[in-house]
Amino acid sequence: AESPPAAEKKAAEEEEEEDDFGYRLFPDRNKKPQSFLVRSLFTFHNKCQLMLRMTLETNPYARLLLEALKQSGCTVFNDRHFSCENCDGCVSGGFDAATSQIVLCQNNIRQQSHMNRVVTHELIHAFDHCRAHVDWFKNVKHLACSEIRAANLSGDCTLMNEIARFKFGLKGHHQTCVRDRAVRSILAVRKVSKETAEKAVDEVFDACFNDLEPFGRIPHSKADARRAYRDFQNRDRYYANL
């Protein structure tokens, strides 16, 4: 018979194998950080850093979220809260709640428009992490809510992006896209059944789909995002005068 410590260790290993919370998709998370010189030799890393800087400086979605995070007491720093890494081939980025760090998959993000969407998507997770007590690891409904918001507000489900995926629809298509992408995101990072993921999304969908903070509207385009950014700045000025 196994001794209690051995049994506990075995149980812990089995639990870890059962659900690694998506870390298998980001293998560089468990590696020793490379030196700047070594990383600089890889064009993927350099390109990732350049595209990230461009997004943070010029993209209205990202600029609004950075300002909202700062207003909420969670200032984001480029060198601390973003990390360009190699990832599994099926993902473009992720939010590591344990370190409050956004992972950008340098081997999978090749275009500036893609970087803009990934950074925005993950910054929405960071905003939710900052403003609410999100139980990312044990409460699948919490995860579902943030995934719904990220798909809804990041531009993931714009008409052009859906056409690029060869998905077409008219009435209710945006909601269908948001629901589908939220389910897919949950299945990518949690070892749960599709039925469990769909149930979690359905149970919180209405409330989380209609939670439009900090945009105040669903930004279907950069023009929408720019208007939302101006509204956010004006709202802050109004509150400041009260």
From TrEMBL:
Region described as Disordered: spans on this chain: 1-20
Pfam families per UniProt: Peptidase_M76 (PF09768)
Coiled coil: none
Keyword Metal-binding part of the UniProt annotation: yes
EC number: 3.4.24.-
Gene Ontology cellular component terms for the protein in this record: mitochondrion
Annotated GO biological process: mitochondrial protein processing; mitochondrial proton-transporting ATP synthase complex assembly
GO molecular function list: metal ion binding; metalloendopeptidase activity
Keywords: Hydrolase, Metal-binding, Metalloprotease, Protease
Family recorded in the similarity comment: Belongs to the peptidase M76 family.
Protein name as catalogued: Mitochondrial inner membrane protease ATP23
Organism field: Climacteris rufus
Highest classification ranks of the organism: Eukaryota, Metazoa, Chordata, Craniata, Vertebrata
Gene designation per UniProt: Atp23
